[in-house]
Amino acid sequence: VQLVESGGGLVQPGGSLRLSCAASGFTFSNYYMSWVRQTPGKGPEWVSHIKTGGERTRYADSVKGRFTISRDNTKNTVYLQMNSLKSEDTAVYYCNINLPQGNYWGQGTQVTVSS
Description:
By secondary structure, the protein is an all-beta fold. The chain is 0% helix and 53% strand. It contains no helices and eleven strands. The strands form two sheets. Strands 2, 4, 5, 6, 9, 10 and 11 form a seven-stranded mixed β-sheet that branches. A four-stranded antiparallel β-sheet has the order 1-3-8-7, with no helix packed on it.
C-alpha cells in the first residue's frame, strides 16, 4: 500500500491550494478515503472523507464550506481543494486509508498559510 500526497506549499490567507493523493497497492474504488491534518504539539485532526464512488462526503466543521474532497477512481487519486485558507489551516496534510490489514498514511504534504 502506498499513498503519495502532493500539492502543499506556502499560500497567503484567503488563497487556495489543491492537494492530491495518489494511491496504489489496493483496490482504490472499494474504500472510503480520508484527509487528516496535524500541527506540532497537537493530535491528528480529521478533515474530510469521501465514499467509494464519491457520492457522499463529510467535513470537519472547521473546514466546511471552504474545502472540497473529490476522487478519480480511474486515476486512483483523491483530492482536497482548499479555498479561503486561514492561518489555522497550517498543518501537514495526510491522506489516510483504513484497510482490513491495517491503517495507512502517506508521507504528508506541508501547507503553510501566512502573509
